Amino acid sequence: MLERRKAPRRPVFVGARIWFDGRFRLKCLVNNWSHRGAKLVLERPADLPITFTLCVPLKGRRTGCLATTTWRTRSAIGVELCPLADYPGDAEAAGE
Known about the structure:
The chain is mainly beta. The protein has one domain (10-93): Beta Barrel (Thrombin, subunit H). The chain contains one helix and six strands, in the order ββββββα. The protein has one helix at residues 90-93, and strands spanning 10-20, 23-33, 37-42, 51-58, 61-72, 76-83. A six-stranded antiparallel β-barrel has the order 1-2-3-6-5-4. A hairpin with a 3-residue loop joins strand 2 and strand 3 (37-42). The N and C termini lie far apart (43 Å).
């Protein structure tokens, strides 16, 4: 298979949250991650916008990224990532 990723990915298997329209919408599992993209496994099939906010707890803190869908199957999506300066705060993102 031809590798088309812009950066190598590493397995992480960490839970994350998908936000759009200004609020939490869906939980997912980040299957692999790089600074440029990720594979997300969805708990259930969902209609997602092309672009959404992905909130991921990495290295003891939550990281917010603007995620743009590049491919999708019924239970997983591939996204291109862009770090965000402004994303839901830690308490809000944790559902507190």
